[in-house]
Amino acid sequence: MVPISNSTDTPIIIGTETEYGISIKNAVERDPVAASTLVVNVYKDSNLKKITWDYQQETPFVDARGFISGSENQKPDEDENTIVNDVLFNGGRYYVDHAHPEYCTPECTNARDVVTYEKAGDLILHLSCMAAEKLLPAEQEVLIYKNNTDYKGHSYGGHENYLMSRQVEFDDIVQGMIPFFVTRQIITGAGKVGSENGSEPAEFQITQRADFFETEVGLSTMVARPIINTRDEPHADEKAYRRFHVIVGDSNMSEFSIYLKVGITAIVLKLIEKGVVGDQFNLVKPVSQNQIVSRDLTCKRNVLLEDGRRLTPIEIQRLYLDLAHKHLQPHEITSVMEDVMAKWEFVLDQLETDPMSLDQYLDWVIKKRVIDAFIERHNLDWLDSRVRMVDLQYHDIRPDKGLYARLKKNGRVHQIVDHAEVVRAITDPPTDTRAFFRGSCLQKFPEYIRSASWNSMVFCTDGSSLDKILMDRPHFGTKEVVGDLLKNCAASELVEAVLSSNANKE
């Protein structure tokens, strides 16, 4: 496949992974694994039921610090693979991850597309629930929550992924991103009633995840969670690219929060690639300060830097924004990036003046406003169990039951994308990444595809031999490059053309 441009800059490629909370109302026994398997498997299109996920390309135990941790990844057998995995027409993935249904967006080139495809995931989960309930007793109902805790000591993630140049030293990423993540939560937090994991008590805090992070850097995503995850699994050409896997953020309902979360993070990573973010923001004890920031609803409590300065999270975020204005050249700033930077500045200005003025924009502020009104209306205190139920209901993905969904329906929250775009994104892949090739092939040639993964597809066009097409550059395989091939070729012709093209480039 031919690249769209000959630029040496690493293109922006972004994707998110959301693990959803799940339960079945009125079920005799609580079995989230069975519930997750049900909703994932029932959604699978009949034409795709025999297509498996290719685990050969996955290396979850490779550590960016230069070693392998843990043992060989446990791969499901073929029957289990088809039940717990669903490769989607939109180029994304939908599967069972431990005790959760997980949706991964296709690869996107900008923050706006990420919002569109992440919200498409919420709709896919809702459609799955409705289909699953037809198979359950009449009194049972599938409940799905896009949140990060079950309030029983278990936290599950809303992860982000960013393509970076392999030439960037991982230590530079660690140094530049820890202060950014600790302070980013004032924009991206989903809000949380109470505290967990033996942390300091709180009535309400900015983020759902801060209580569960216990170290600065590490590979684990489930115990001793690190602010910086070291998983080195690029799903691309490992000599050219690094996939920076982010586990420290919350799952967001607010489109605005999702938009800024991935938008500003991609910008800061670009600044790190440029070498303009050094040690000037290094924090003293960032893990404990991460929890302190989460509990300060004014966003103005100082954090301590290693050089002795005391700055507010707002001030630190402004310094990152200032670096973007100073070092990003006009030709590097897309229209979406320009909009992200403008909204970044707007939010920081409002946080400085009055955080609650952002009650149509940021999840934690929207939720706080809703809960404040509920407490006042019913004369409750923060320890009342009904308050925590309101917190949970905010994340209910049902359009008629979820509190965020109802606010959106009533025009009470700011939207980034149109609902029609989100509906289309359930089936239409992005046109400007390799997701276009993956999704389009699934739609046109499902009977000839044996397996798929982020960076490969295996075809069987003659009934016996297998042909693997490697897609090790996420910004190839676009509509511009392969659209005509997909439109005009039969499956065997497509495979032959792509394999021949790839061979000529070796």
- Class of secondary structure makeup: alpha+beta
Q: Could you tell me the strand content as a percent range? A: 15-25%
Oligomer: single chain
Largest sheet: 6 strands, antiparallel
From the alpha carbons, calculate the radius of gyration and give it in angstroms: 22 Å
Largest sheet, spatial ordering of strands: 6-7-8-1-10-15
How many structural domains does the protein architecture include? 2
Shape: globular
Q: Give the termini distance in whole angstroms.
A: 12 Å
Ranges with pLDDT <50 over ≥5 residues? 1-8
Percent of residues in helices: 25-40%
The number of helical elements comes to 15
> What is the fold named in CATH at topology level of the largest domain?
Creatine Kinase, Chain A, domain 2
CATH architecture of the largest domain: 2-Layer Sandwich
CATH top level of the largest domain is Alpha Beta
What do these coordinates show?
It is a single chain. It is built from 15 helices and 20 strands. 48% of the residues are buried. The protein has helices at residues 32-43, 78-84, 111-133, 170-188, 255-274, 286-295, 313-327, 335-353, 363-378, 385-394, 403-409, 419-425, 435-444, 479-488, 491-505; strands at residues 14-19, 21-25, 52-53, 62-63, 67-68, 85-87, 93-97, 100-104, 141-145, 158-165, 192-193, 204-205, 213-218, 225-229, 241-246, 303-304, 310-311, 449-453, 456-459, 467-470. A hairpin with a 7-residue loop joins strand 19 (456-459) and strand 20. The protein is α+β, with helices and mostly antiparallel strands. The model is unreliable at 1-8 (pLDDT under 50). The longest helix is centred in the first third of the chain and has 23 residues, at 111-133. A six-stranded antiparallel sheet has the order 6-7-8-1-10-15. A four-stranded mixed sheet has the order 3-18-19-20. Helix 5 (255-274) crosses helix 7. It folds into two domains: 14-424, Creatine Kinase, Chain A, domain 2 (2-Layer Sandwich); 432-505, no CATH class. The radius of gyration is 22 Å and the shape is globular.
